[in-house]
Amino acid sequence: MTTRIIGTGSCPGDHKVSNGDLAEIVETSHEWIFTRTGIQNRHLSTELGTSGMAARAAELACEDAKIKPEDLDLILLATSTPEYCFPNGACQVQEKLGAVNAAAFDISAACSGFVFALQTAGSFLASGTFRNILVIGADDLSKITDWSDRGTCVLFGDGAGAVVVQAEERGCFHGIMKADGRKAKVLLCPARSEGNFLTGKVPQMGYISMDGQEVFKFAVKKVPECINQLLSEQKTAKEEIRYYILHQANKRILEAVAKRLDEPVEKFPMNIGEYGNTSAASIPILLDEMNRQGKLKRGDKLVLAGFGGGLTWGAILLEW
Ligand code: COA
Questions:
Q1: Catalytic amino acids?
Q2: Gap between the Cα atoms of 162 and 92, Å rounded
Q3: Calculated CA dihedral for residues 36, 290, 110, 315, nearest 10 degrees
Q4: CA-CA 20 to 30 A from 238: which of 164, 264, 305, 319?
């Protein structure tokens, strides 16, 4: 028994912000941002927030899959930016969609979240626990971004992407998930201060902080290692892979991964230029764009790979 994606949808933030717009609020330039990251625009959410964007992407994925929300058995939402501690964001999506028969919970693995959530869905399908699963990656990073820190604020955008998955006899679906909690500090965002009424600290959300060069080195080392391990375990040659759909963090990271894998960069589709780094949403947004543009054909072998805070990273080999 394997896992197949039967529908996709996406919803970027509603407000497009260019590099030039950011140069008006921090000391930066289009040239600096574009040459180091490939980013030209990002779309920030001013209205919907994480659960609203997630629900819209989910609605479109259900339409594409020709499945009614009532037929969903499980909603998995990968996010680092839920609106509440509880209820979880997946329950908010369940309510907005009217997916009254679905269990719902969130998965937190930063920019690897979608890859982790899709593998979790795959395990539930393989065990026969659920039949129709909605997997969403959604993040509203602009709400945890320090808009006076030019080292981070130019990188991120908001958005959501979703897929509906079902079990299938044919095809392939295999994954790897990894984590290294010792490297937490290179990319983190405190949830709230550790205070209570005894210590006198006021609970408040923190902002993203990052050691950019360490994150860069981590990604270009661990992602190719992980993909090579996956392909060798599954006895799959690189020539069989149609596309590598990677987390869209930085164009230079994607180019470096392609080089280390000794694969042409044309096999690494990118939309980072338009959306920036949308964390857990980047892979499903790109998948949805490619699906709607007719670029994915039944039977195409794809590798998805995510990496981010935790540190976490992982990859999936699947057949479209
Ligand atoms: N505009 C202009 N200058 C900037 C800037 C900005 N937006 N951000 C930083 N700078 C400056 C720095 O202050 C520094 O100046 P200094 O030399 O006078 O101190 C200089 O540019 C170089 O900074 P540095 O951090 O060394 O740049 P870099 O070449 O490493 O590029 C990143 C920075 C963030 C683009 C790069 O490290 C990166 O992409 N890392 C990966 C980040 C990532 O993908 N994170 C998410 C993973 S899920």
A1: 111, 247, 277
A2: 15
A3: -100
A4: 164
pLDDT over 70 for what percent of the chain? 97
Q: Which of 3, 15, 5 is nearest to 291 (CA)?
A: 5
Query: How many percent of the chain have pLDDT more than 90?
Result: 94
- Which residue blocks in the chain are alpha helix, DSSP H? 19-23, 30-37, 49-65, 89-97, 113-127, 150-153, 212-233, 251-261, 272-275, 282-292
- How many other CB atoms sit within 10 Å of the CB of residue 192? 12
CA of 9 to the centre of ligand 1 (A): 32
Q: How confident is the model at residue 29 (pLDDT cuts 50, 70, 90)?
A: very high
Contact of 245 with 303, CB cutoff 8 Å: yes
Residues 259-286, mean pLDDT to the nearest whole number: 98
For residue 203, pLDDT over 90 is answered with no
What is the CB neighbour count within 10 angstroms for residue 189?
19
- Residue 173: strand pairing partners: 318
CB neighbourhood size of 144 (10 A): 19
Ligand 1 centroid, distance to 151 Cα (angstroms): 5
Ligand 1 atom 38, closest CA: 212
Q: pLDDT tens-digit profile of 96-146? A: 999 999 999 999 999 999 999 999 999 999 999 999 999 999 999 999 999
Cα separation, 76 vs 59, in Å, equals: 14
Q: How far apart are CA 248 and CA 286, in angstroms?
A: 9
pTM higher than the cut 0.85? yes
